[in-house]
Amino acid sequence: MNKDTEYEKFTQELYQQLVNVQGITIEVLHNVELEGKSGQKHQIDVYWEYEIAGIKHKVAIECKNYNSKVSIGKIRDFFGVLSDLNNVNGIMATKIGYQSGAKQFADHYGINLKELRFPNDKDWKGRIKTIDIAIQMVIPDIKQRIPLFDNDWLKANIALQKKQITYSLTGLTNEMIIYNEKGEKITDFFELDNKVPCLDKIDKKNLEHIFPFENAFFDVTGLGRLKIAGIKYIYDINIITDKLIIDALETTKAILKDAISGEIFFFDNKGKVK
What CATH code would you report for 3-117? Predict the structure, then answer.
């Protein structure tokens, strides 16, 4: 596929995108041959037609993949084709732009002149091109989670030997569950981890915080369900800073600019038109 054909197909793709966004259910075609009133057949780069309220609308696009501005002669040639066709609206698309005489001629005869290309710095005037976002993440580093057992309850309900009892807790944080006296879940370590105070937003070490509980119980391997007065957290606060830059150029596919009015449509890589 040569570069001129690539540009025609690109124009077809973006105009299909544009008519879809505008709610028109038609197929935008490439390389169509139309017969004029003179009997002469004309090759049209991009073409579509649709009917509303019994009235048929036809659009022909002439693509000029030029590296310089389109001259008035090319507009006259296209005007001759349109004049031979039956009620077809004309659009010319190019990358660089149009000479002043070409604009004047096209404006007088109702030919739409478009620049279809990748945007340059001037196209972003009055629009947001780049967004810089400063990100600060406050991340608690949990070092210990210590159940604070209700000693009075333990003495009254558990036959403990005089020697010191050791215990271990194993499992995922969402498996470390705190129950009420009916055996219903109150919370778990995963939920408590997300409630650890981190309000100062500065690096700190060995902070302590206690989540108090009433009529709460915790399962301990070998001892069963024991009453607790709270959970003590020992943790560090780590502050991580980062910067996110959103550049519209990375998501912009092309622009469609009206050479007369200056109106611009931006096409992104996800099929949206703005």
Answer: 3.40.1350.10
Per the document, the length of the chain is 274
CB atoms within 10 A of CB 176: 19
- pLDDT given at position 127: 65
pLDDT of residue 120: 75
For residue 223 the two structure tokens come to 């001892």
Q: Which residues of 216-245 are buried (b: 16+ CB within 10 A; e: fewer)?
A: bbbebeeeeebbbbbbebebebeeeeeeee
For residue 47 the two structure tokens come to: 């073409």
Q: What is the mean pLDDT of residues 144-170?
A: 78
Residue ranges, CATH 3.40.1350.10, the chain? 3-117
Helices 100-109 + 72-84 axis angle, to 10:
20
Task: Kindly state the average pLDDT of the residues 160-186.
Answer: 80
Please name the amino acid found at residue 187: T
| Three-point CA angle 161, 163, 167, nearest 5° | 90
